[in-house]
Amino acid sequence: MNKRLIFIILLPIFLLILGCQNKEVDNYTGEDMLMNIIDSNDNIKSIKIDQLSGTFKLEDIVDIPFQRALVMGEMGEVDYIEDGYFKRDKDSLYYIGKDKEIENIVGVVIDPPETSIKDAYYDMERYLEDDKVLFILLDGFGYHQYEYARENGFLSFLEEFEARKVLSVYKPVTNAGLAAIITGKSPEENGVYSRKQRELNVDSIFKVAKDLNKNIAYIEGNIGILDTEVEPILNLDKNKDGYTDDEVYMSTLKAIEEGKDFVFTHFHGIDDAGHTFGPLAVETMERIKLIDSYIQNILSHWDGITIITADHGMHSIDEAGDHGDFRHEDLIVPYIIIK
User: Fold this and answer.
1) What pLDDT is recorded for position 44?
2) Cα-Cα-Cα-Cα dihedral sign, residues 109, 113, 116, 122
3) How many whole angstroms separate alpha carbon 44 and alpha carbon 41?
4) Coil, strand or helix: which one is 59?
5) Which of the residue ranges 15-29, 58-72, 99-113, 314-328 would you say has the lowest mean pLDDT?
6) Which residues contact 12 (CB under 8 A, 6 or more apart)?
7) By the 8 A CB rule, do 194 and 170 touch?
8) For the segment 207-231, what is each residue's pLDDT rounded down to a tens digit?
9) Closest CA to 125 of 313, 307, 303, 288
10) At a CB cut-off of 8 Å and minimum separation 6, what does 315 contact?
11) Is the alpha carbon torsion for 309, 315, 321, 326 positive or negative?
């Protein structure tokens, strides 16, 4: 079989795989357009948008008491619901606030956490003024996974520290979550609202660190996610175990040994295992346990501030896991600061 024939046979397979990797779920396509209502612990209800009409208040569609609520749009827009109202117009659902109008509402968070992953930017900025900072991003690690791992003996180190619930961004995927973390801005401001964008519309924490003359190491898996002011240190899966976590771990130790004073480390294994086996599967828990041990050893060599959070969480599907939906499992993640 000649090379040209092999290429013709394999090309459709490659394109199919690539398409799966870049699949985006869109609330505003198809007949089942949804507005989802969640809180920090549960998915409360999903309402088909075609069942809504006219103008209405949140209280008209939510039958449980709440103190405050936050609305999110398809492009990552965010607004707290105060005196505003919703409006169904043709195929779109709007939120009309005092100072802001959001089209294509995807959901509402009732009594959301006080803080979000965007606060990581401001915490890093504040600590970098006078200290060294290690930031650890645990890809695909939802708060419900953190609780399950802690309660079932898979977090022997991190269970010692307080983990707050914080809110991710919509869409809860890596590009958008990482962009929010390193810019402190919502997707509508930083320009990254799905898996498809790489360019930031605003400066990142790496620009802040460079301006402070910090010695920086940005440690990634085997690919770069976003275009930033510093080049990431990429780590291939050299031992072919299916994960880059051990290589990222060794690169982090090397950066500390070299005297870096701002280290940004991105572990991908929890997300990878969750997609394959499910977010609460024993295989995913074992991956969490391993990374927990990596963090323990990393911190034994580190004498600065450490901030740990996730870009998004993950929900269960048939014998596997996924994310990108307006669900509490995808949107609520842990946040830990270790001084």
Assistant:
1) 97
2) positive
3) 9
4) helix
5) 15-29
6) none
7) no
8) 999 999 999 999 999 999 999 999 9
9) 307
10) 142, 279, 321, 322, 323, 325, 327, 329, 330
11) negative
186 contacts 197 by C-beta, under 8 angstroms = no
Dump pLDDT digits (tens) for 55-111. 999 999 999 999 999 999 999 999 999 989 999 988 899 999 988 999 999 999 999
| The token pair that represents 26 in the structure block | 């869109």
Unique residue bearing structure tokens 């198809």: 30
CB 180 within 8 A of CB 122: no
By the 8 A CB rule, do 275 and 322 touch?
A: yes
Residue 242 CA to residue 76 CA, distance in Å, equals 32
For residue 321, what are the CA distances in angstroms to 66, 244, 254, 271?
30, 19, 33, 9
Name which of 13-17, 103-107, 181-185 the model is least confident about: 13-17
Q: What is the pTM of this model?
A: 0.91
CA distance 313 to 90: 33
253 SS3 class: helix
